[in-house]
Amino acid sequence: MSDWLVLVLAMLGACAVVVIITLVRHRRAPEDEDPSETPDVIEYMTMWIGVVYAIVLGLAIAGVWEARSAAEDTVQAEAQALHEVSERVRVYPADVRDRVRADVDAYVSYVVDTEWKSMTDRGEVTEQGARLLDRVRQDVTDYQPRSDFEAQAYQPLVDQVAAADQARNARADSTGATMPSVVWWGLLSGAVITVGMVFALQIRRTARELVLAGLFSATIAFMLFLIWDFDAPFSRGIAVTADSFLTLFPHA
Q: What is the DSSP letter of 115?
């Protein structure tokens, strides 16, 4: 099922629940009930619950968006480091240069074609990807420079391989969900309480109030969907892609 279809169904479901509960409550309400007699303390509590929950939602969205941006930066850093290795190795002899570039291309192709699917489906990187990157490291570190010019390029190449390995480890740490389950319980419980406080205000069955109540619940459902979608940077609808690799290595 498409993530966007899930969003539409969640928003429609939230609207339907609020409208149905309102209609049922209105039908069962006593004839002498006066909705205008809502105590001031309930209005005050409803206002503060809404404000506090809005702050919590904002912090949650900011947190998952920051995690997604960090994952995107990590992918960019890994691709750029490998690109630097592929370019800077040109000062080495042809056989060494071609071997390093071939191993870099093999690693990039594997990440784009195979490992990315593993991150999407299982939320983890693969051992084969680590072995391919180790091969690149061995190509760079095992070579003994034969001139001062090659020696000047050696340490920067080693540093770029280390940067790629560090970025890969960070990418591996970002494959899973970033929000703890206890936070999700708080967000869902807060949504129920916040929407439930609407009924404490004794809304009536007028079209205006029903529409506003439905839009209010749909907005909360939309915000929760955004948090859920951003929570897994590599496997949801608005996911981090391998565009950085494909841009720097178009043949991958």
A: I
* Separation of alpha carbons 161 and 13, rounded Å: 50
- What would the two tokens of residue 28 be? 């069962």
Residue 215: alpha-carbon gap to chain centroid = 25
Percentages helix, strand, coil for the chain, rounded to the nearest 5? 80, 0, 20
Structure tokens at 54: 């809005």
Over the stretch 44-59, which tens digit does the pLDDT of each residue have?
A: 777 788 888 889 888 9
Alpha-carbon dihedral sign for residues 39, 42, 48, 50:
negative
Neighbours of 100 (CB within 10 A): 24
Q: 109: how many CB neighbours lie within 10 A of its CB?
A: 16
Give the tens place of pLDDT for each residue, 180-221: 888 888 898 888 888 877 766 666 656 777 777 778 888 888
94's tokens? 């042809």
Residue 250, pLDDT score = 83
Residues 6+ apart with CB under 8 A from 73: none
pLDDT tens-place string over residues 92-129: 999 999 999 999 999 999 999 999 988 888 888 999 99
Token pair for 163: 């940067």
